[in-house]
Please model this.
Amino acid sequence: MAVKTVRSIKPFTPQLVYIEPNALEYPLGVELKKKFEKMGLEIRSTTSHNQVRNIPGDNDLQKYRNAKSTLVVGVRKTLKFDTSKPSAEYAIPLATGCMGHCQYCYLQTTMGSKPYIRTYVNIDEILDTADKYMAEREPEITRFEAACTSDIVGIDHLTHSLKKTIEHFGERKYGKLRFVTKYHHVDHLLDANHRGKTRFRFSINADYVIRNFEHGTSPLVDRIGAAEKVARAGYPLGFIVAPIYLHENWKDGYKEMFEILDRKLAKDARDDITFEFIQHRFTKPAKKVIQKNYPMTKLELDEEKRKYKWGKYGIGKYVYQTDEQEDIKDTLYGYMEKYFPNAKIEYFT
Model:
């Protein structure tokens, strides 16, 4: 089963930028405004991201797609961090929203009718808050996930907020940083003084899933190439296989994914690798939004084929049946042990 050649994508450039006035009270806000002016981008002012109006488009689908290329530069007002199990103790909020068009993504519902991207310029306040969370748990290590509500790597070539955060954690005794990405634009992060405190993870999947459901993201081979770069830069490396999706010939598809990873990732770039496995799931609200935003989707969302699993806040999700989950675990764990016997499995969910 041959993988189709896919052209690399360029780093994200917003088509429209909104700037909250109080963002200009911070150095990063001023810097970004000058940068976007020099790039010739359309810049508008907004009192708050909630007041963003008039996203271009003749219908809801066009407005949704245009919102995905709209960036709001603002201030993070809520400095209470959400929990981020099982990946980390806390989510560190550097940005919200994503330029990718992953049809299954849970951000479909959490972003609601405002799928634009937000970047926060009060980075020092955010990092100070992270320090307080670390101090509360000393001498235990506190892990922070930087990609819960965004693909932070996808915009960091513009903001460098992630790079600053990586270097901040490099200087902390009791904290570690984690994030995951589907983008290969990592060159500006290679010289960051991370001191081994940041685990750089890449989301990978079978060709069928990437081709049909992950539009606007980097091809698998580009992600693997970027993974090799960051491993050579000394970062601990990880891979998230997600969402594991039972398509036709799925076992062959995921075997091929591991074969490509084994073939492309240099042997000396495998000293410290973790794997996380996440099965495909959806909620009733997510199904409704996905079918609205992607009316031609091939994504299987049949509740009758799934097992209902209660979640926090009383919102349940539809996961695969128990026997299917066991088959997924046995199959993918087997591939991992064959091709990456020294890697660590962090969890399956």
